[in-house]
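Q: I'm a student working through a structural biology exercise. My instructor gave each of us a protein and asked us to get a predicted structure, then write a short paragraph describing it. Mine is Helicase associated domain-containing protein. I'm not confident about reading structure output yet, so if you can add a plain explanation after the tokens, that would really help. Here is the sequence I was given:
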Amino acid sequence: MGERTYRRQEWEEWYQNARAYADTFGNLLVPHDYVTADGYRLGRWIERQRAMHNGVIPSSLDRERCLALERIGMVWKLEKRLSWETWMAMVQEYHQEYGDLDVPTDYTAKNGCQLGYWIKEQRKKYKGGYLAEKQIRDLERFDMIWSFYERKDWKDWLRLAEMYYQKHGNLLVPASYQTADGDRLGSWIFVQRERYWGANGRRPLSREQVKALEQISMVWGLDRVREEKWSAMVRWIEEYKNQYGCLPLRPSMKAPDGRSMGNWISLQRTALTRGKVAEDRKMRLEGLGIYPFGSTKTPL
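A: Happy to help. First, here is the predicted structure for Helicase associated domain-containing protein. I'll explain a few features afterward.
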């Protein structure tokens, strides 16, 4: 069964899954990448509820829903669960073992605490000016770097982007993409687009930086990014079908950018069913044998 997103399911369905998790594990400290047996990406849903409650994103939570989550052990601010000194002991242990504080978001300390998520929260608080000077000094003693895209020199990131381009033939890097070494290239590319457009107060890119990225086919406009990604996926399916004579519908089948082919094709069929596909796209999809749900034509 495919993974379910919070957009497609009712809040109450997600809550019942959260309640089942709490019954099983005794808490609601759901790891970021946790997926239920039925395909619910519960870890991300819990993070979204925290983000809404804490004002990070627009909220659809009301008091009744907040109380319902609290009754099954919801912790809105992870740092409130333990003292600052306890978290710093985990920070010190991590630093001693790895030599830095570049903690993956899904990293869990030996005592079961989600240190990676906690570090992420401290970066957010630092950016918002909510950390005390002592807390800043405590973390910087262990080489804390506050902005992920500053952990490497810009030219180091450019080399990673060039390697991606050489492998994939484009710079349409998924936002969640990480290199084999854990470098968040997808997020870095997103930040470069913000810098190009001057969004969110970002420091503008220099002319040399813009030129360097454009030499490896950087796409600046998000509308064009989406169009390019759609076309790249269709081209990949065309190549697959020419080679194997069928659509890549197996659940395990992944496109070169990591997306599930079955899910992508299902989304296109849903859009076709709802009449929300432009005519030129419709022709390309049907040329591949991708039809609306309920069609008498059989997917090839």
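A: Here are two points you could use in your paragraph. Confidence is low (pLDDT under 50) at residues 1-8. The longest helix spans residues 222-244. It's a good idea to check both against the output above yourself.
Q: Great, thank you!
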